[in-house]
Amino acid sequence: MPPKKSSAAAAGGKKKSSPYNVFMKEELAKLKSDPRPHKEKFKAVAALWAKSPKNPKNAK
Description:
Blueprint: H1 7-11, H2 19-30, H3 38-51
Organism: Acaromyces ingoldii
Domain YABBY protein C-terminal: 16-56
Pfam families: YABBY (PF04690)
């Protein structure tokens, strides 16, 4: 029996990235040359997300 296809694959395309995923990808790319461990960089970017105007929870 072949494996089940995900709904995104069955629909013929990729699932749209959330605003959080887009933000994290952009901001982590900016910190690529930072010597800190990935875990610390991720925490720093997550803190930026909490205050970001791109965060739908902060939209006013």
